[in-house]
TrEMBL record:
<protein>
    <submittedName>
        <fullName>MFS transporter</fullName>
    </submittedName>
</protein>
Length: 487
């Protein structure tokens, strides 16, 4: 059997076969073949192995994201042990998150040179080493250095995971596969403070990092046995690229060049705005619950994070399922599938769910007569759960679209998305509590609601004008090989 270039196979356009109704009524495998001409790539791997691959990738992101919020919870204890201030510890976490956003600029080129599987295992090994360094750090300087350096590995798992899913799952299954993969991404940030609140109550803060070491160790084992190489990688330890061509892979300009496409830059900004709201939701509960409700037990406040964690998990699973359902709807209406069709799935979350519950939480906590230390906990619990579910329902379609918009440039686009996304996350995690202290929970919640609405406007514009925006950019920038295709 002749070899197949997966990128060409995935991105090859096809003519619609039969009526839209006939296409939708066909079995799912038949529809996949009609759409992509690449079903041989998807069908060659059994479903059980695909599920293990998704789990392995998801666990790696969970282990990497766990530390992005866990030590925010222990900032007081860390500052006392290392003779510094809580603000320094908070800024070290912000530095870790910012480094996560830039990590794909380091590891994606390495993956192009040595192969994705080798890079994945090496990245996990180095993350393990830096996390051990942070756990045994004797001074604040060593602690901050190890934390920031560990962040330089984190985001590569996001890029590699979404790329693997785009290779191994057909378009009508990608939304759901992405949603299960993103469980690790979205569960890490709320599980961090949840577990930290319980552990800090009974043990030393360093044990949080040793817990993360064990999680990364499991990631290393899973990566060794289950994370696949790219179909374009050379076997074994052979290099894909050598010499100056290898050095050129570290040029970050290709990542920024993709942002010249309005549909791509709009998507990146939408993810950034949502991330601001997400990390403001996660960074403030200890401050708000202790000052507003007088809660002092770290375990009690840590258990509060069950609400957003459950909302994140529910939102990402339902959001992925609904985005796939929306794709089928647009196939029935138009007779073909375009990547931006799935963006229509998140409009209700953008414009109703997130703004409403952000405003309700912010101004409900601001109003002294609206909540009390006895019965008022129901307000932040319900609003945190609902906001979290809305955020990840909105994220689900955006994440999948980034992997589909320009298939031959998906790695650069995903890397750029996370760079923007984690930049907003770092700023939000560092400024959320000072912002509430300066203006109160009401105005802070209003800012999050406004950003969610702006993200919805950008996403709606991309959903309706994505093809024309991309064609305009290609005419302006000259002919490109990245023409948008219904993959």
């Amino acid at each position: 059997m002749p070899s197949i270039d997966p990128e060409k196979a995935v991105s090859a356009p096809t003519e619609p076969t039969g009526s839209p109704e006939a296409a939708v009524s066909q079995p799912e495998n038949t529809l996949d073949r009609v759409e992509t001409r690449a079903s041989i790539l998807y069908d060659s791997i059994p479903l059980w192995r695909k599920c293990i691959i998704v789990f392995a990738c998801s666990w790696s992101t969970l282990a990497a994201c766990f530390s992005s919020t866990s030590l925010l919870w222990a900032s007081k204890e860390i500052s006392e042990d290392l003779n510094t201030t809580s603000q320094v510890v908070t800024f070290s976490t912000a530095g870790l998150i910012l480094a996560m956003g830039m990590s794909a600029l380091v590891w994606s080129p390495i993956a192009s040179i040595v192969g994705r599987r080798v890079a994945y295992i090496a990245c996990t090994t180095i993350l393990l080493a830096f996390t051990i360094g942070a756990a045994i750090a004797p001074t604040i300087e060593v602690f901050v250095a190890m934390r920031v350096l560990s962040g330089l590995q984190g985001c590569f798992y996001h890029v590699a995971g979404q790329t693997i899913i785009a290779e191994y799952f057909p378009p009508m299954q990608r939304g759901r596969a992405n949603s299960f993969f993103l469980v690790g991404t979205v569960a890490g940030p709320p599980l961090g403070p949840l577990i930290a609140g319980i552990m800090v109550q009974y043990t030393c803060w360093r044990n949080l990092l040793w817990l993360q070491v064990s999680m990364i160790g499991l990631s290393l084992v899973l990566a060794f046995f289950f994370v696949p190489a790219s179909r374009l990688d050379k076997p074994g330890l052979a290099l894909n690229i050598r010499g100056w061509h290898a050095v050129a892979q570290f040029n970050p300009l290709p990542v920024f060049k993709q942002m010249q496409y309005p549909n791509i830059s709009f998507t990146h900004l939408s993810c950034g705005f949502l991330s601001w709201t997400q990390y403001s939701l996660l960074a403030t509960p200890r401050h708000v619950l202790s000052t507003r409700f007088g809660l002092t037990s770290t375990m009690t406040i840590g258990l509060f994070y069950i609400a957003p964690a459950t909302g994140f998990l529910l939102g990402t699973v339902i959001g992925g399922w609904f985005s796939d359902k929306t794709v089928r709807k647009w196939i029935a209406m138009r007779g073909e599938r375009l990547p931006q069709d799935r963006l229509n799935a998140g409009m209700f979350a953008f414009w109703v769910v997130i703004p409403f519950f952000m405003l309700l939480q912010g101004w409900g906590l601001q109003c002294s007569n609206c909540s009390t230390a006895v019965g008022g906990l129901a307000l932040p619990i319900v609003t945190s759960f609902s906001t979290a579910a809305g955020l990840l329902a909105a994220f689900a379609s955006l994440n999948t679209y980034c992997a589909e918009a320009i298939p031959k440039k998906r790695c650069e686009i995903i890397a750029g998305k996370y760079m923007v996304q984690y930049t907003f996350s770092a700023i939000s995690s560092a400024s959320a509590v000072p912002l509430i202290e300066a203006v109160g929970t009401g105005p802070a919640g209003t800012i999050g609601a406004i950003l969610a609405v702006l993200a919805g406007l950008l996403t709606f514009t991309t959903a309706k004008q994505g093809r024309s925006m991309q064609e305009w950019a290609e005419e302006r920038l000259g002919p490109r090989s990245s023409k948008e295709l219904p993959v």
